[in-house]
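Retro notes (design track)

What went well: tokenization of the new backbones is finally stable.
What didn't: we kept losing track of which sequence belonged to which structure.
Fix going forward: every design gets posted as structure first, then sequence, in one message. First example under the new rule, 189 residues:
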């Protein structure tokens, strides 16, 4: 009976650890521009280009655009519209800040502010999104030739504090003690 009880404890601990790992490994929240936020950048387009070059974007990650409603917005546009800052055919537009964008497809994504001439003076961002990381048990799916929808926007509550970016390494640091505990319990019970 004691052996069955210890096996149940080990099973419960492993289950909790695996749920925690599964729910957060491939999802990172990127605060666009970090402390600067989504605004007219002081160094023009280079500000957001430099910021993006320091990030790794994957499908499932989110972008948080911190801006004041009425002063800025964020639109996802096509590559052809990015250079000339054209907002005539936006893929999606969110005029309410702060705004959260979930990256739902891999490849290049282009974002601009469509207010007055903000894009022309540097309030624009291009990122490259990698496919979602997969575990060793789920194979990569073959590339698709079917068009995928643009990223989805989610409304963040106004005035709410912005949590720091999450990372997979912090999740692994949380799961490791559970794994150690389960192993120790299996030997001592």
């Amino acid at each position: 009976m004691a052996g069955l009880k210890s096996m149940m404890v080990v099973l419960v601990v492993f289950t909790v650890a695996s749920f925690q790992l599964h729910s957060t490994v491939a999802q990172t929240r990127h605060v666009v521009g970090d402390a600067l936020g989504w605004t007219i950048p002081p160094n023009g387009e280079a500000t957001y280009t430099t910021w993006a070059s320091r990030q790794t974007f994957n499908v499932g990650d989110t972008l948080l655009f911190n801006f004041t409603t009425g002063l800025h917005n964020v639109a996802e546009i096509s590559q052809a519209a990015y250079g000339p800052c054209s907002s005539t055919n936006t893929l999606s537009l969110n005029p309410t800040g702060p705004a959260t964008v979930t990256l739902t497809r891999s490849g290049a994504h282009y974002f601009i502010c469509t207010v007055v001439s903000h894009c022309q003076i540097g309030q624009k961002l291009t990122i490259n999104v990698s496919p979602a990381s997969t575990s060793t048990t789920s194979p990569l799916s073959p590339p698709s030739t079917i068009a995928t929808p643009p990223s989805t926007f989610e409304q963040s509550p106004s005035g709410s504090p912005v949590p720091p970016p999450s990372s997979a390494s912090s999740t692994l640091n949380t799961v490791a003690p559970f794994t150690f505990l389960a192993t120790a319990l299996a030997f001592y019970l």
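Added context from the reviewer: Residues 76 and 111 are 4 Å apart (CA to CA).
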